[in-house]
Amino acid sequence: MANPRAGKVSERIQQIIARRLEKGLRDPRLGFVTITDVRVTGDLQHASVFYTVYGDEQELADSAAALKAATGMLRSEVGKQLGTRLTPSLEFIHDELPESADHLNSLLAEAHRRDQEAQALAAGAQYAGEADPYVKPREADEGADDALASGDDFDEAADDELDELEDVDELDDSEDYEDDESIGSELDEESEER
């Protein structure tokens, strides 16, 4: 409510109606009714009164009929005690909040139960692979480390052979490019003859 006066008026209407219902009405259909909220329009002409009823569907229907029958009397009571120029019209609306809260509580209980089941499964679970999935460096023989450090295993002849093979590959690649150029020149000659 943007209007602070409407907030004060709605609180006052809630107190007045709750006190009057506490005293009781002459209607035997009225059950155990609790006024949960009152919302007033900005111009203070209309008030929506939200209520809950303790009991089953039949008691809810009976209490709704009793409140509808007592609306005029409750409005006059509000008008006497409110002290405003205009008395707002009253509309009684059954509040669905407790039922939705019960539904949410049941959903939360179900989620909690599933979490406990998942936690129990996780407690007895085993790794699909190794417990530590990260690759660790291999531990080499100490003799191999010494040989690498001294350079005994380095073969200069094998290194020279690798260099020669690389040079041959470079020559082969350049020949491929030359062939491509000759094909392009042959195509140019054919197009000139036409």
Query: What's the number of helices?
Result: 6
Shape category: elongated
Q: What structural class is derived from the secondary structure elements?
A: alpha+beta
In the sheet with the most strands, the strands line up as: 1-2-3
Residues in helices, as a percent range: 55-70%
CATH superfamily of the largest domain: K homology (KH) domain
What order do the SSEs take from the amino end to the carboxyl end, as H and E? HEEHHEHHH
CATH topology type of the largest domain: GMP Synthetase, Chain A, domain 3
Radius of gyration: 45 Å
Identify low-pLDDT runs.
none
| CATH architectural designation of the largest domain | 2-Layer Sandwich
In short:
By secondary structure, this protein is of the alpha+beta class.
Describe the model:
The chain is an alpha+beta fold and about 190 residues long. It folds into two domains: about 100 residues, K homology (KH) domain (GMP Synthetase, Chain A, domain 3, 2-Layer Sandwich); about 45 residues. Helices cover about 60% and strands about 10% of the residues. The protein contains six helices and three strands; from the N terminus they run H-E-E-H-H-E-H-H-H. It has a three-stranded mixed beta sheet. The radius of gyration is 45 Å and the shape is elongated.
Which features would summarize this protein structure in a list?
single chain; 194 residues; alpha+beta; GMP Synthetase, Chain A, domain 3; 2 domains; 3-stranded mixed β-sheet; 3 strands; elongated
What does the secondary structure layout of this molecule look like, with pairings?
Blueprint: H1 4-23, E1 32-40, E2 46-54, H2 57-69, H3 71-82, E3 89-94, H4 97-123, H5 142-150, H6 156-193
Parallel strand pairs: 2-3
Antiparallel strand pairs: 1-2
